[in-house]
Protein: Roadblock/LAMTOR2 domain-containing protein
Amino acid sequence: MRRQLENLIERLTKVTVQPPADGRTPAVPGASVLGELHALRHRLPGLTGSLVASADGLPVAADLPPQVEPAGMAALTTSGLALSQRIALTVQDGGFQEVVIRATGGYVVTYAAGLVASLTVLAGPGVNVGRLHLESRPAAARIAALLEEAGAAAPRPPPAEGPRHRRNRQ
Structure:
């Protein structure tokens, strides 16, 4: 039963890449993105894991600790990202860029990777958060470029308009 479930999860979480119109072999973004995740871990002491999730909540690449299941984490990340985008629209003009969760055991930070995906990094409690941002923000931009180039993640539809609050200006 467990093996059947694992096979089903594997089939449902595969990211498909449409072949280019010119007939050349498509790039597989997972390998390039995974390389970016490994490089990020190498540059950041205290990083315990990372994940790239597509806009529809599927894992694209993961470098996670064994106790964190990639498909579940990708789904949670995407749900949190949708909520964060909604909050950002409600309280101010501007789009979502990142969210930081600080827990007793460390940090979970999710960055927008363009309009196509998100990068989530896990770090221990002693991590230098400034350095975490300094390394992770450009990594998210590079990952977005890799995914857009490969056409691997569907563009995220624009979020619904949140309530607009007028500020009194005198």
User: Anything to note?
Assistant: Confidence is low (pLDDT under 50) at residues 11-20, 152-170. The helical segments are 2-12, 29-43, 70-91, 129-150. The chain has one domain: 27-150. The two ends are 67 Å apart (CA to CA).
